[in-house]
Design brief:
By secondary structure, the chain is mainly beta. It has one domain: TonB-dependent receptor, beta-barrel domain (Maltoporin, Chain A, Beta Barrel). The protein is built from 4 helices and 31 strands. The chain is globular, with a radius of gyration of 25 Å. The two termini are 23 Å apart.
């Protein structure tokens, strides 16, 4: 498994006609093209718009066991195998993805292009927590300015693409049943899926259930290794149905219902009693047969998130608190793929509206004292609309130039008068509305020479402050133990970025090196204000989001593969990041050198994989409460076997993670919580 590469842009071949049509004329022709087509072209992104993205392929039920994958593993572990992604871990559930060393405020994470805003002020519910590997096919990762298709971004974007059977020339019904068990936290995994495909109709329905107790960290002499408050229970239901009313016309409806209960977070002072999401969409696709347009896709979507933090299961707390949050988003996008001559164009018009509301109620131990209430998100209403376009120009078989540009309008309004007055304690005469323009643009040139491919890119983009950065009211950050207060008057944060990469590929050898540099202007960061009193009893102080002149981030990574023969393969990767503010402050959560090596054996229905991964000591940011974490080196082993039962298949995967039961923690483990110790697992998938 891992970060499987799918590059190789395959745009429409250059014909005998003139080199290029002007972009405006091409778009005008695209809007008028209405001729239907019988056939469904390959998914856009796999054919034309993929030069700038990396793809993490998730395990599919049929045949994944032959590759030694962990078929029922959590999405978090698969994303973490990409060199450009780190996962912030506050417990054993719902890790927060960091792209290019930057937290989710600076990235754009979508599900099938749909914008989803979390409802938790402590980021316990990243977008990735509301989907399952069972209903996803791949994660598309775009770095920097090229990820601005659905909104302003600095770090880039991650689009989680769901699995679809698609239309089929013949009717077919199939499905799978899965079960898994992991010894460390006694996790039970059950799942089932049903798929139907025909020339005019397809459906995909799947259900996954996970339940786990407290996990155990690695062995420490004379110390308990149980990590309390790390349990969770999760239910996920996903359904997609597609219908073809006529040639070249397709309609699709989809829904996701995800519910997690009794979720413990050892890295935080509170747990979660309920995290629930309802995500729905309706989509229309038009596939013309003639003309420059290959696909015109329009989607309407809606999602609502409910998230309830409480500490009722904690035996001793300074003060009891309830912290519910709600987020509702309605949105759309219309997307056009076209090609003519040397050009392959994608244009996206998108918009959405979001309401984010969160509150906190504190209950003193003394019944005679009054209950305290505040709005931590004061019903912040966000309205966004934007246009993004990308044109790949193929000069010849050796040189491509990809140009992308976008412009968004981002507006915020405080819907709660009580919340607005609370913020006016810090900012007198706060304007009722704040509107921002978010430009972006960049270019990447790709040069192929023999077995080498080189890529050089540059760009500029801006983002608006997040709901917490702009309007948060006394949000506790457990990692540095400070309450945070937002500032809605801040300017946009901008980023100048540059990327460089080289790839060498031969029959048995693959080597790829990448580097990315980000110069963030008006960098948003929390700064201490000693004159302010914290709201949380245990907090060390208050930080207010402010902007420093700039910050610099640098990322580099190396991937290599060597195939000895048809059965043996060796893979390795390494990555390193650096981050510093204009005042010399080390940025928080910056990854040290990390590396991973895999030796894989696969023959017929058997597969085995041995993995060694490790890290050097981190470079802590003391001003953000980080401490030095020693380096580590751990090993994993997995074996799998696939059985043919008539026309059906049974896949069995077994393995052990952290074989030597080492105790360790990483730079991205919130509050220094330890990682899981030795874990023996067995996953079984029956495909019929």
């Amino acid at each position: 498994m891992g970060n499987r590469r799918q590059s190789g842009y395959t745009a429409t071949p250059v014909g005998a006609r003139p080199a290029a049509l002007p972009a405006l004329l091409l778009l005008a022709r695209a809007l008028m093209a209405q001729t239907p087509s019988d056939t469904l072209p390959p998914t856009p992104g796999l054919t034309g718009m993929q030069e700038l993205e990396k793809v993490v392929v998730l395990p599919t039920a049929p045949g994944c066991h032959a590759h030694g994958d962990k078929p029922l593993g959590a999405l978090d572990s698969y994303l973490a195998e990409s060199n450009s992604v780190n996962m912030i871990r506050r417990g054993c559930y719902a890790w927060e993805p960091m792209l290019n060393g930057m937290a989710t405020e600076r990235s754009m994470i979508t599900v099938d292009g749909m914008r989803i805003y979390g409802a938790c002020t402590d980021k316990m519910d990243p977008v990735t927590s509301y989907v399952e590997t069972a209903n996803l096919s791949r994660a598309r990762i775009r770095s920097g300015t090229s990820g601005g298709e659905h909104g302003g971004t600095i770090a880039g974007s991650i689009d989680l693409e769901r699995r679809r059977s698609g239309f089929s020339a013949t009717r077919g019904l199939g499905g799978s049943t899965s079960a898994g068990f992991e010894t460390n936290n006694l996790q039970r995994i059950l799942g089932t899926a049903l798929h139907y495909a025909s020339p005019a109709l397809y459906t995909d329905v799947d259900f996954t259930f996970r339940q786990a107790g407290n996990y155990r960290a690695g062995h420490r002499p004379d110390a308990s290794n149980t990590v309390d408050f790390s349990q969770f229970t999760k239910y996920n239901l996903s359904a997609i149905a597609g219908y073809r009313p006529g040639e070249g016309k397709e309609v699709e409806a989809s829904v996701i219902f995800d519910k997690a209960t009794d979720v413990g977070y050892p890295g935080l002072p509170m747990d979660v009693s309920l995290a629930q999401a309802l995500i729905g969409s309706v989509q229309y696709r038009h596939l013309p047969r003639l003309g420059p347009v290959s696909l015109w896709e329009t989607k309407l979507y809606y999602n609502t998130i409910t998230h309830v933090m409480d500490d009722s299961r904690r035996p001793v707390v300074p003060i009891r608190m309830d912290m519910p949050g709600w987020s509702t988003t309605e949105g759309f996008y219309t997307k056009l793929y076209a090609s003519a001559g040397r050009h392959a164009i994608k244009a996206t018009l998108s918009g959405h509206r979001n309401n984010s509301l969160a509150e906190m109620t504190m209950y003193p131990h003394d019944p005679a004292e009054p209950v305290m209430f505040m709005l931590t998100w004061p019903d912040v209403r966000t309205l966004y609309s934007g246009l993004n376009a990308e044109d790949r120009i193929r000069f010849n078989d050796r040189v491509d130039l990809t140009v992308h540009a976008g412009l968004g309008i981002h507006g915020n309004t405080i819907g709660s008068e009580f919340g607005r007055r609370s913020l006016e304690l810090f900012y007198v005469s706060l304007p009722p509305r704040k509107q921002r323009w978010l430009p972006s643009g960049g270019a990447t040139i790709t040069h192929r020479q023999g077995r080498f491919t080189h890529r050089l890119g540059a760009g500029y983009s801006e983002r608006a402050p997040s709901v917490s950065e702009g309007y948060g009211f006394y949000l506790l950050n457990a990692n540095d133990n400070h309450d945070y207060v937002g500032d809605p008057r801040m300017r946009n944060e901008g980023s100048l970025s540059a990327e460089l990469g080289s790839r060498y590929q031969r029959d048995k050898v693959f080597v790829e090196w990448t580097a990315a540099w980000f110069h963030l202007v008006d960098y948003i960061i929390g700064r201490p204000h000693p004159e302010l009193m914290p709201m949380n009893i245990t907090a060390s102080g208050v930080k207010v989001y402010e902007q420093i002149p700039y910050a610099t981030l640098f990322n580099t990574g190396l991937n290599a593969e060597y195939r000895f023969n048809e059965t043996w393969q060796l893979r390795g990767d390494a990555s390193w990041r650096y981050g510093e503010g204009s005042d010399g402050t080390r940025l928080p959560l910056i990854q040290p050198l990390q590396f991973r090596t895999k030796l894989r054996y696969a023959r017929k229905q058997y597969a085995a994989e041995a993995t060694v991964e490790g890290s050097t000591r981190n470079r802590p940011s003391l001003s953000f409460g980080e401490t030095s974490k020693p380096g580590f080196l751990i090993g994993h082993l997995s074996v799998s076997r696939e059985f043919a039962i008539r026309n059906h298949r049974l896949g069995v995967n077994m393995g052990v993670d952290n074989i030597l039961d080492q105790y360790y923690t990483t730079f991205s483990d919130w509050f220094g919580i330890p990682r899981m110790g030795r874990n023996v697992y067995a996953h079984v998938v029956y495909v019929w």
